[in-house]
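re: ur question from yesterday

yeah so i grabbed the chain u mentioned. its 234 aa long if i counted rite. heres the sequnce exactly as i have it in my notes:
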Amino acid sequence: MEWIGVIRHGESNGNVAREAAESAGDDVIDIAERDADVRLSPAGEQQGRALGRWFASMPHEQWPDLVVASPYRRALDTAALALRGHPRMLVDERLRDRELGVLDLLTTHGVANRYPDEVVRKRRLGKFYYRPPGGESWADVLLRLRSLLRDLDGQRVLLFAHEITPFLLRYLLEGLPERDMLAYAHHSTVPNGSLTSWRREDGAWSLEREFESDHLIEHGAEPTETEDATTRSA
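ran it thru and got these structure tokens back, copy pasting raw so excuse formatting
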């Protein structure tokens, strides 16, 4: 690879429901379907179509030669809207969002209210290594992402994934230390539909774009900064 980018999926119904639940102080996020089946919100669909117009305006030689999407519906639909008909579009489960186990569908308040012992355990272990019962730690997600990177065979690779993915790629590609990566994630929100990318020069990866979303505005959609529970609540 000489270039790799990641686009966070468009705003999802789950993002909207989480924002509403957190704002209301509820324990549980009101989502009927499983996480893998959550669809894009109307704003998310607009963001996906704006991505499609953006790619359509580019010369084809600037397109990625390999596209890999998370199997979760919100990421798949964003990829399809952005690059429908791309000759090399793959789906890989190693790009899926972090699994939260017993903390699934709980807000920050809900976790503290229902699983206070887990809050204490997370504080002791640290966010990077804390694994909710039945779920994954950030380190677990890194392991499958590291495995995926080893298998990619394109020169320009574009991933369609989740809010957590750009943070973990900074750790993997740039060697950002755990403490710095978590501090960076704590103070950052990845806009839906935004692009983060890296270029390899002299064998080392350097950050090229960070959470860029101007392409959405230019092509008729508003960026949103709704957060995922996988990076915030657990």
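noticed a couple things. The domain at 3-223 is CATH 3.40.50.1240 (Rossmann fold). also The chain has a mean pLDDT of 95.
anyway ttyl
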